[in-house]
Specification:
About 40% of the residues lie in helices and about 15% in strands. It is α/β, with parallel strands linked by helices. Helix 1 packs across helix 7, helix 4 runs parallel beside helix 5 and helix 9 runs parallel beside helix 10. The model has no long low-confidence stretch (mean pLDDT about 90).
Length: about 400
């Protein structure tokens, strides 16, 4: 089976890496890895180098916005659609495998649909009410033929969207596999890796992405609220790069200025790498921001998470997550609760509901059973959901 796997940035690569190794270890699979999006961006740290350092052969296909704006993202998607169409014309796989909800996947999956290539989608069925990712994720579900989801609740969502139940597989979250298969750094090693020189203060791990369904002009104000809340804490805050979304550059500029003004309490890194990021969740005292890693992976470390705003709205929360609005006083209150001995003690027996660390072999086992000999038949999906009632028109409207 010829598989093409696409990674759009550091976050999804960290999730996909255990699956890559699982598939590469099975002789029936021939895997081509393609990197696009922020992997190829100097601003985002050119994280394709981490993929290469892990020993993977990788094909780059550029799709980097030329501006931090909606128009810049639209141009990037158009560029990506052309690039992936050309790639699929010369390197046609039996199956395309993608993960998540990044806008770059629109270009990837649209090209695959036009080239009649079946798609397997990971992490569908989830909800992020504050992000345009919701629209992207659900549209990829309708383009995809096979679905590998983290929880039964998400499988039910995809079935309600009309997807065939026999093509929906509950496998858990791949991020938990990464935790179990990545050797952690010691605390001293991690502090050195992160460039933190004050080793006596507790560390907050912060990632704050644009809330893409808000006006991206609000991004600066929103991150200011987070930074002001952390100013009054006794924490050293390690901040990682925001996503390459509209508003991301504004967040980066504010964070950069704040770190320069408060070098003893704040530090910015473009990317910690997968091992560095997972070690950060192991050694940090609290996680702050609106990253999906706070919802999916942090529970495995029993790490308190202050989840700010509605970017992750709709995702199922483990007990370590404290939600609060993007307002400095509310963030301070949530931080006080997260840092309290009582809250931390209550997480002692927490089990991460998102999986047991064996999602990669489950996915590989199911992929091995797929019959891809007739892609045309696979693409004629039909609608298998329960009948939906048709709403009556309001009184007075024409029939």
């Amino acid at each position: 089976m010829n598989l093409t796997i696409v990674t759009t940035g550091r976050a999804d690569y960290g999730l996909l890496e255990p699956l890559l190794r699982e598939l590469q270890g099975r002789s029936m699979f021939r895997v081509r890895l393609v990197a696009t999006g922020s992997h190829l961006s100097a601003t985002q740290g050119e994280t394709i180098r981490f993929i290469q350092a892990d020993g993977h052969e990788v094909t780059p296909i550029p799709m980097t916005p030329d501006q931090d704006s909606e128009a810049g993202i639209c141009r990037a998607v158009a560029t990506g659609l052309t690039g992936f169409s050309e790639h699929f014309r010369t390197h046609r796989p039996d199956l395309l495998l993608v993960l998540g909800d990044r806008y770059e996947l629109w270009a990837v999956c649209m090209a695959a649909v036009f080239h009649r290539i079946p798609i397997a989608h990971l992490h569908g069925g989830e909800t992020t009410l504050g992000a345009i990712d919701d629209v992207i994720r659900h549209s990829i579900t309708k383009m995809a033929t096979f679905h590998f989801v983290a929880l039964p609740e998400y499988a039910r969502t995809i079935q309600a969207m009309g997807e065939h139940p026999e093509r929906i597989h509950v496998v858990g979250a791949l991020g938990i596999d990464g935790i179990l298969h990545t050797a952690p750094m010691t605390r001293d090693e991690w502090l050195t890796h992160a460039g933190i020189t004050n080793t006596t203060r507790p560390v907050a791990l912060m990632t704050f992405h644009p809330v893409t369904l808000d006006d991206h002009a609000d991004a600066s104000r929103q991150v200011d609220e987070v930074l002001q809340a952390l100013d009054s804490s006794e924490l050293t805050t390690l901040i990682t790069m925001p996503n390459a979304d509209a508003g991301g550059a504004a967040i980066f500029a504010r964070v950069q200025r704040h770190c320069q003004a408060h070098p003893d309490a704040f530090r910015l890194v473009k990317s910690l790498g997968q091992r560095g990021y997972l070690s950060g969740m192991r050694h940090a005292t609290v996680m702050v921001g609106n990253s999906s890693s706070g919802i999916l992976e942090a529970a495995s470390f029993r790490l308190p998470v202050v989840n700010i705003g509605d970017r992750q709205g709709g995702r199922i929360r483990p007990a370590n997550v404290i939600d609060c609005p993007c307002e400095r006083h509310a963030i301070r209150q949530a931080l006080t609760r997260a840092l309290s001995p009582e809250f931390r003690a209550g997480l002692a027996d927490l089990i991460n509901p998102y999986g047991d660390g064996h999602a990669a072999p489950r996915i590989a086992d199911r992929l091995a059973t797929l019959d891809l000999s007739n892609p045309g038949a696979l693409l004629k999906k039909g609608f298998y959901g329960p009948p939906q009632p048709v709403p009556s028109p309001p009184p007075g409207d024409a029939p």
